[in-house]
Sequence to fold (114 residues):
Amino acid sequence: EVQLVESGGGLVQAGGSLRLSCAASGFTFDDYVIGWFRQAPGKEREGVSCFTSSDGSTYYADSVKGRFTISSDNAKNTVYLQMNSLKPEDTAVYYCNALGTSIRGQGTQVTVSS
Fold:
């Protein structure tokens, strides 16, 4: 089965860190650009970061630049999102998606308390 599964979300205080994982199965993620998105209640979905395995290029939204780092482990077919210096406004459900496809995980909740 082709799927992406996110994990690593949770509740953390402002200033804390979390590392999200996006594990691919049924396909090789390095054939795609893998993106992290988030959606908070009442807000539109926001692109957070993406990673292109073929050339190692990355993208970060201005809102997370300098705080979040995207990386990959090809052996584990997994993309990570290291989130540092978390803020209450980072609270959202975080999803990973193989861009240009319908392959998307179920999401993982990140809650940052003030």
